[in-house]
Amino acid sequence: MDIIILGSGVYSGTPKPLCSCENCLRARKFPLYRRTRFSIYIPEIKALIDPSPDLHYHLGRINERIEHVFITHAHFDHIGGLPELQIFRHIKFYGHHKTLEAARDLQKRFVGESRWNWEYFPLEFNRWYDFGFMVYHFKVVHEPVEAAGGFILWVKNKKLVITGDTGPEILDDAITVEKIKGADLLVADMTHKHSIPKAHLGVDDAVKLARAVGAKKTVFAHINHTNYTHEELEERVKPHLVARDFTHILI
Ligand SMILES: [Zn+2]
Ligand SMILES: [Zn+2]
Ligand SMILES: [Zn+2]
Known about the structure:
By secondary structure, the protein is an alpha/beta fold. It has a single domain, classed as Ribonuclease Z/Hydroxyacylglutathione hydrolase-like (Metallo-beta-lactamase, Chain A). It is about 25% helix and about 25% strand. The strands form two sheets. A seven-stranded mixed beta sheet has the order 6-5-4-3-2-1-14. The longest helix has 15 residues. The termini are close together. The mean pLDDT is about 95. Bound molecules: zinc ion (3 copies). One zinc ion binds next to helix 3. This is MBL fold metallo-hydrolase. InterPro entries: Metallo-B-lactamas (IPR001279), RibonucZ/Hydroxyglut_hydro (IPR036866). Pfam families: Lactamase_B_2 (PF12706). It comes from Geoglobus acetivorans.
């Protein structure tokens, strides 16, 4: 099964406008180093995780239908592209009810409600749901967002785990770590060089999480322009992977 990391960056993307750090300078020169805002696509079930503000560009590249949309939390970089989905009449949205409130609001403001058969499925944290594929929405600490969470998805006997944006507190959350253990694929936050409590994972803590989860494959994403260069990150997290935009992962 193929999983595509559509966007590997954070809210500002790389290059961040007006920034002249090494990553931003390289990204302006070489498109390979650009990082659009975070998003994932699962072709098998036509599912999108987080409609990034770069969704129009992502759709242009993958040219695929979207039927299911999972939203980790209502930060701009994870939900801002929602109105781009208006080219699809039938979509099912999944997330915490507070996240879905923001999604509905965007639909109301920018898309309209009459002709679009968009359905919303609020998920409580820390329980399983069966939609033909199994879904579990686990809570993470990502302040000031009250309702931020990651997903476990069982698709065709494969266990996919996406942390979304998470603080390092996830390492001390024994129940969640136990639940996500043994994944076929872990996609984890690795925003910064060093963790920011209650906000994001740094490189060392991201690797610690990967070790605790023991997934068959681990890919780090949501990478800030101020982080190490792509090659340095690859070296530091070996044998785990560092996402670029449109990285395909076979599991
Ligand atoms: Zn984010
Ligand atoms: Zn920069
Ligand atoms: Zn966030």
